[in-house]
User: What shape does this take?
Amino acid sequence: MPRSTRQTLIRFYDALFAAYGPQGWWPARSRTEIVVGAILTQNTNWRNVERAIANLRAARLLTWKALRDAPANKLARLIRPSGYFNIKARRLKCFVNWLWDRHRGNFEDLRRLPLGTLRAELLSVSGIGPETADSIILYALRKPTFVADAYTARLLRRHGLVNGGVRYDELKAVFEDHLPADERLFNQYHALIVAVGKKHCRPRARCDGCPLQRFEHDPRAC
DNA sequence: GACCAGGCACATC
DNA sequence: GATGTGCATGGT
Assistant: This one.
């Protein structure tokens, strides 16, 4: 008799939390830095994102106003280590321009919006897709939306909870439909998935030592 | 040198 | 709606 999805998700969470403990996400010093990091990490290794963010910090550009006033080519030069630097510089400018055009440059203002409205508004910004929007909502604005990423897809696929061609919204719905809409839970859960994913759920990674190894899984499904 | 990394927009069918 | 492609650096 297969366990319910809810039970499975809770068991996974408990096993990951027991193994890794609280993650304290998002790894950033400010809300501005969270948003910048969410955009820069698109399809990119986090280590390279850290280099780019360090450059922005050294240039004192990690404030909304400084980002608004900085020319895109200057941003592009500084964020070069994160890859796709021309595109990402444009995306940073798009976000900041939207923040000023629609919300007078007041990031805190976004917290007042209902979650659905907030998400739809973020998705209307060029360069903000579903995962980036959810990262901003969950980690910078502390509202309960689940962030599904490449690690999440691999994990659920490996354990047979979703099929190969699963779409983003289906992936996050697995968590949102079976768990309480708790911001702290979603925060911790996604961070734990990244923790286990970096170690055990990427190409050529091994299951040895994985906290989820004792659960039914297919190592080839990553 | 190939493959990968905490995606997204756009074109095409 | 599904699929393919460009964007680009740095690590393995």
The mean pLDDT of chain A is 96. Chain A has eleven helices and no strands. The radius of gyration of chain A is 18 Å.
